[in-house]
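Let us practice reading a record.
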Amino acid sequence: MSRVRALRRPARLAPGARVAVVAPSGPVPEERLQAGLDVLRGWDLDPVVGRHVLDRHGEFGYLAGGDADRAADLQSAWCDPAVDAVICARGGYGVQRMVDLLDWEAMRAAGPKVFVGFSDITALHEAFAVRLGLVTLHGPMAAGIDFVKSARAQEHLRATLLAPETVRTIRSDGTALVPGRARGITLGGCLSLLAADLGTPHARPSARGGLLCLEDVGEETYRIDRYLTQLLRAGWLDGISGLLLGSWAGCEPYDGVRALLADRLGGLGVPVAEQFGFGHCADALTVPFGVAAALDADAGTLTLDEPALS
């Protein structure tokens, strides 16, 4: 079975770079969007918003407008040669409804650029890896409440975008669930979305050789059990190199979640680092996907072989 491979790194951003903000998933609060755009402008970037960013679906209020419109905004931004990066406005739900509407040939022809998001955007991280072969950034989104209110989240994303050599080592706030060191290629995202992506045209058949990053939000422990068990039964976790566990905000008390994570993941025989500070949490860090890195679970560090962006 094939192993996860390192992907092509887009170019870092420079002052004045144009950043498109799109909404592939849930509806976007206008006041938070404006606050996020102000943060980007404060970094001397030039944010522009997709035509349908503030749309709301007429029947299903959990969607930011129609599937075709959300796909068109993303594709238009990606294929615009004046745009250097695409940042998602928020997660929620909706990517799986629009991802098959994207013209991947046109997007591949447009060349590499920076892509940022997390949560429901996990399905796009996988699609960008499989269809475009590009490094992407699992990081805070422009209209995310934790982004607009968190200096640490803002600074870590800013450094990753503009001076990625300064954040080649990412440090955990926690300890080792399973001690040890490992090397591999980073990938992952929201656990429930990875489980839902299994068997789709844009999902990798395996995470073999990867340093798998997992997190989720608002899930009961039995649901986390179900997602992990599904990935295990599907063989998707066979041969992974190591695991980084992010936040489990809104889930049951962490002691119970931790026991489940140890039960389901401890038998893989790989290092597992917990509380790594990415995902649905305050002060979330940005983690690049598709780069070769070394994990030291005991020290709580992920060290990239090279900066996330070229």
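A brief commentary: DSSP finds ten helices and 14 strands in the chain.
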